[in-house]
Structures are given as structure tokens and as C-alpha cells.
Specification:
- By secondary structure, the protein is α+β, with helices and mostly antiparallel strands.
- It has helices at 2-70, 73-83, 89-94, 96-110, 140-144, 146-153, 211-216, 242-247, 288-294, 333-363, 365-415, 422-453, 466-476, 478-483, 502-518, 550-553, 577-587, and strands spanning 116-121, 126-129, 158-164, 182-191, 197-205, 225-229, 299-306, 312-320, 325-332, 462-465, 487-491, 497-500, 525-533, 536-543, 591-597, 601-609.
- 48% of the residues lie in helices and 18% in strands.
- Helix 1 packs antiparallel against helix 10 (333-363) and helix 15 runs antiparallel to helix 17.
- The longest helix has 69 residues, at 2-70.
- The chain is elongated, with a radius of gyration of 44 Å.
- Mean pLDDT is 81; it is low at 169-180.
Length: 611
């Protein structure tokens, strides 16, 4: 009966879980959709702000540059001289000042890839130009933008937005053979010494390299686009979708979209219907973004609207009063929602997995309780073992540190006695250093052993040169080797490689080599052999030192046995190096063994998998 009640409770819990989870799923999906749209619009707003600030910075820098050129004393002098020839067009073209002006500006135009210059008298006639066909004619700026030309005569430096040029400008692009050419200007007054405006100077820019360049910075993803337009909705930058516009019949093949397309809503998706040619653009309304921006209102919209292709997009827009243009950043709704669709199915799959997991967990609840009790028992035993290990390490360290600390204190006091000789003082200091080094080794070995025993030692394998590792260790031990006049015999191939943890393996080899040095007599030898075959590496380190008594050999790899022995030159040990070596080799899936005969020497053999 009790079991049945428990099962009913579990089923009830599962039912409640499924209901709540389903409600949560719908809420998460709805919130995720809103957040996806919000994030997309936020990114568009950031892109819009970046392009807007970049354009403003560019505009201010170019206006300063143009104003500086207009204020040149030479230009004022040449303009005054040219104005005296104003009624004779041929003289204007051939005057010395015309030649000097062209030479003066030739290199300056190359600095930023500008196309040319004009100096225009107050009645709109071109006095100076880089082309003869413009000289003496009514300047295009005074004809197409009289209000901006008048602003320059009133002392302002203004930017004339892109327009159709009256003179062809050859371009090194696929559009160079087309019959329409684009241009734009920055206009600044030329002032006389009495600060009166006698003419205006205009710098002719390439709009493709200026406006369109900054708009292209605002492109993102597959469909993200930033573009500029004037107060009538005329596109002032190159569209990212020229191929779409050509397919819809709005552009001829190879024609630029700049100054050819109006940012108007066709009423349907031009990418799916190909009959837009029968509809006049004049009868169409501006897109939602363009209509709002031309009213000098900034904004953004998470609800989609149609762009000039009729594609549903999300967007952010504003009116740039400095340049007197609208800017909008848009991205296709389908692209934004495609990422949401992936996320939606991911959430559904995760939810389904959680439901299945909940059912499995409920079914296994009773058996899990039993396993938990068993696991707690194991963990308790493991904790007790860890405490036991800690206590033994503390006891070992306390015992092994007490004696050298006492000796260091004694040697320190003796070295301060005034009656001792310098040689004696040097010997005391040498012993203090030796004891200090031994204590540091002991503490380091205890820390390493503790990490190994507490499963905190991480094995990070990589391929490294084993022969270089051995040579590096021998180099570090050069002083100790020379002091005992030991002969080192090496038998291993060059460029021998091993796939293992280089830091830990170097610790093992270094420990064994220093042990061989420590227990070798003066004039002895140490041999290091390295053999690799198939997937096995064997390292042999042999010496002809004092050897190890047979009754101590089985205790050398045990942390809890006192095995430390002084070397042949009085070197001290910690007794923990070899147990640590065994743990490291075992962690690599290898083995370490020894063969020793007292007074004849010792051989250590390390076998590791992989080469």
C-alpha cells in the first residue's frame, strides 16, 4: 500500500511538472522571439549610430580641408586675376592663373582620391576647373542646388549631396561605360582681405568612395544594409541588392542604383513577382523608414515593414541634419527569424529531453535512494582515507622538518661566533643552504603527492622531444655531476618524441637522475638509455653507486615508509620522490621498476605507452 501511494505521488509530481513545463515552454518561446527581435533592432540602431558618427566626422574633416584650400592666399590672388578675364572664355581657359591653379591642385586631389575643383564667381560662372569644357559655363552647383550655392556666398562651408554629373568621369570599374556619372561637392567661400566673399571654391568628390563607402560599413549578415537618401527618398548610396533591382526591371544591366532608385514601397515582394515595370514609381509611397526619416523623426521598429524591394525588414533610421540626408539600417526579417527558428527547435528538443529525463528519474527514484546511501558510505570511507593520508603527511613533514630546522638554528648560531674561522663559517652557511634546499624539496614533494592522492593532478598530454628533456635536466645538474666527476653515458636517438605530460615526465626523469647522482661515488658513471618501438617507450637510468639494501627496496615507492637516506656526499632526501614518480608514471598508464644490488648500483626502468 505504501509503495502504491509513493507511485501515485510520483505520477502526480510528473503531471504537475509537465503542465508547468509546457506553460514555461510557451513563455520562453514568446520571450525568446521578442528578445531576438529586440536584439536585432538594437544591433541595427548601433550600426546606424556608428555610420552616422563616421559620416559626421568625415564631413567635418572634409569641410575643414576644403575651407583650408579656399583660404589659400595664392588661390585668392589667382581668383582676383581670373575675374578680370571673366567676359572672355578663351582667355579664362588659357590664362597663366588657370595653369597655375591646375598645377597647384593636381597633387592635392590625389591625397584623398578627389575628382577635381571649381572656383565659381558670384554669378555662378566657373572661373577655374580641371577641365576646359567647364570654364566659363554656368556651374552645375548653382543650377541644381542654388540654396547651397547661396549659403556658400553667405560665408558657410556646405556639402552638396551626390548628383548626376554634367561631365563624364571615367571609372576603373564595371560601370565605367555607363552613360550616367555621379559626383558631389564641398563648397566654401573665398574671402578677400576685407573678409568679403568674392567667389566660392568647390572640391569635387567621388560619392562611391565617400557616401557609399560609409554605408557599406553598415552591412551585416546576408541582408543587413545601411543606406542614405535625400528628402525626396532618392537613394544616395549604392544598394546591396543591385541584382534584385535589375531582375525587377528597376535598373538596367550594369547601372548604378545610386541616384537611380527611390526608397519607395512597391506594395509586394519584388523577388517573387516580376511585373513591377508596369507600375510607375511616382505613384508609390515612401517606405515606412524613409517616410519617417524625411519628417526629421528618428526611430526603430521591431514590427516588420517593406523596403524598396518589397521585402519585409526590421529597421532603425534617423535624419542627419549636418548632411541633410536620411540614414536607415535594415535587415530582412527572414534572416533574423531564421536564427530564432533554430533556437526555437533547440528549446523544444531540450524540453522534450527534459520530459523524458524527468520520467526516467521518477522511475529510478527508489533505486536512486539506495544507491545514494551506498554512495554516501563510499564517500565517507574516502573522506576518512583522505584524513588519514593528511595525518600521515603532517606527521611525516613534522618529523622531517623538525630536525633540519633545529640544525639550521644551530649552524646559524655557530656561524655568528667570533672565534670561528672564515672557512668554518663558510661550511656552516653551506650546510644551512643544503638543509634549506632539502626542506623546500620536501614541501614541494608533499604538495605534489597530495594533489596526486586527492585527484587534483591534471594530466595534460602533448607531443614533446624526450631527448631535449633529458639534455635539459643534465644541464641543470652539471655542477653536481662535475663535483663527483661522474661519467654520463647516453644511448638514445636524436629527436625522440613522446606523447605525455612534459612537465610531469620531466619531474620523474629529473628525480631519478638526481637520485643516481646523489648515491654515486666519485668517479662513477650514470647511463641513460632510451628505446622506442611501436607504441612503447622504455627509459633506463642506471648507476654504479652504493645500491639499495634488499629489505628497503619494496618500501621505496610507499609514502608512509621512512626511506630517506643520505647521499655519498652527505646529501639529504625527502623519501617522497620515488612514490611521487610511481604515481605520475601510473597516471600515464605506465610502469616503473628497479633492480639494485648493494655496493654495485641501481637500475630504474620506466615503460610508457605511446611514442
Amino acid at each position: 500500500m505504501l509503495k502504491r501511494i509513493m507511485h501515485l505521488r510520483i505520477l502526480s509530481l510528473i503531471t504537475v511538472f509537465l503542465v508547468l513545463s509546457t506553460l514555461l515552454l510557451f513563455w520562453v518561446l514568446r520571450s525568446t522571439k521578442q528578445q531576438t527581435l529586440k536584439t536585432a533592432v538594437s544591433q541595427l540602431r548601433s550600426t546606424l549610430s556608428y555610420v552616422d558618427k563616421s559620416l559626421n566626422k568625415w564631413a567635418e574633416e572634409r569641410k575643414i580641408f576644403t575651407r583650408t584650400l579656399a583660404e589659400s592666399p595664392q588661390l585668392l590672388k589667382w581668383t582676383k586675376a581670373q575675374q578680370s578675364l571673366q567676359r572672355n572664355i578663351q582667355n579664362l581657359k588659357t590664362s597663366p592663373e588657370q595653369i597655375q591653379v591646375r598645377a597647384f591642385f593636381k597633387d592635392k586631389l590625389k591625397l584623398q582620391g578627389d575628382l577635381g575643383i571649381f572656383v565659381i564667381c558670384k554669378n555662378g560662372q566657373s572661373l577655374f576647373s580641371m577641365r576646359d569644357q567647364n570654364i566659363g559655363t554656368q556651374n552645375i552647383i548653382s543650377l541644381t542646388h542654388p540654396e547651397l550655392f547661396q549659403a556658400a556666398l553667405e560665408g558657410k562651408t556646405v556639402i552638396v549631396p551626390p548628383m548626376i554629373s554634367d561631365v563624364p568621369v571615367q571609372e576603373q570599374t564595371a560601370y565605367s561605360t555607363f552613360t550616367r556619372w555621379l559626383t558631389m561637392f564641398i563648397v566654401s567661400p573665398i574671402r578677400d582681405t576685407n573678409d568679403s566673399v568674392i567667389a566660392v571654391f568647390s572640391l569635387r568628390l567621388d560619392p562611391i568612395r565617400n557616401f557609399s563607402y560609409f554605408a557599406e560599413l553598415g552591412r551585416s549578415g546576408e541582408t543587413g544594409e545601411t543606406y542614405l537618401f535625400d528628402d525626396k527618398g532618392l537613394l544616395l548610396t549604392e544598394s546591396r541588392f543591385n541584382h534584385h533591382l535589375e531582375n525587377a526591371g528597376l535598373l538596367q544591366s550594369g547601372q548604378r542604383s545610386m541616384l537611380s532608385i527611390y526608397v519607395k514601397d512597391p506594395g509586394y515582394n519584388l523577388l517573387t513577382v516580376n511585373n513591377f515595370q508596369s507600375i510607375s514609381q511616382d505613384s508609390l509611397p515612401l517606405t515606412f523608414a524613409a517616410q519617417t526619416a524625411t519628417q526629421k523623426i528618428s526611430g526603430q521598429r521591431m514590427k516588420s515593414f517593406r523596403d524598396y524591394r518589397g521585402v519585409c525588414v526590421l529597421g532603425a533610421w534617423k535624419w542627419n541634419s549636418l548632411l541633410n540626408v536620411g540614414i536607415t539600417s535594415e535587415i530582412d526579417e527572414d534572416e533574423v527569424m531564421s536564427s530564432y527558428q533554430v533556437l526555437q527547435w533547440t528549446i523544444i528538443l531540450v524540453f522534450s529531453g527534459l520530459v523524458v529525463l524527468a520520467i526516467i528519474l521518477a522511475y529510478m527514484l527508489i533505486s536512486t535512494e539506495l544507491n545514494l546511501v551506498k554512495k554516501l558510505s563510499v564517500e565517507k570511507k574516502k573522506a576518512e582515507d583522505a584524513n588519514d593520508l593528511k595525518d600521515k603527511f603532517v606527521s611525516l613533514v613534522s618529523h622531517d622538518l623538525r630536525s633540519p630546522l633545529t640544525s639550521i638554528g644551530s649552524y646559524a648560531e655557530l656561524s655568528q661566533e667570533p672565534e670561528i674561522t672564515e672557512e668554518e663559517r663558510h661550511q656552516y652557511q653551506k650546510r644551512i643552504k643544503l638543509l634549506t634546499t632539502n626542506m623546500a624539496d620536501l614541501i614541494g614533494n608533499v604538495l605534489e603527492a597530495t594533489r596526486m592522492k586527492s585527484d587534483k593532478m591534471v594530466i595534460t598530454k602533448s607531443r614533446f622531444r624526450l631527448d631535449e628533456c633529458i639534455e635539459r635536466i643534465l644541464l641543470e645538474c652539471t655542477v653536481k655531476i662535475d663535483m663527483k666527476k661522474l661519467e654520463i653515458k647516453k644511448v638514445y636517438p636524436k629527436e625522440a618524441e613522446l606523447f605525455a605530460d612534459p612537465t610531469l615526465l620531466e619531474e620523474v626523469i629529473k628525480n631519478l637522475i638526481t637520485n643516481s647522482i646523489k648515491f654515486s661515488n666519485e668517479g662513477g658513471y650514470i647511463s641513460i638509455d632510451l628505446a622506442q618501438s611501436g607504441n612503447s617507450t622504455v627509459i633506463t637510468i642506471k648507476d654504479n653507486g652504493i645500491g639499495i639494501p634488499e629489505n628497503r627496496q619494496k618500501k621505496l615507492f610507499d609514502y608512509y615508509e621512512k626511506t630517506s637516506t643520505q647521499g655519498t656526499a652527505g646529501e639529504l632526501g625527502t623519501g617522497m620522490g620515488l612514490p611521487l614518480c610511481k604515481d605520475i608514471v601510473t597516471a600515464h598508464g605506465g610502469t616503473i621498476t628497479l633492480d639494485s644490488v648493494e655496493k654495485e648500483g641501481t637500475t630504474f626502468l620506466i615503460t610508457l605507452p605511446g611514442a
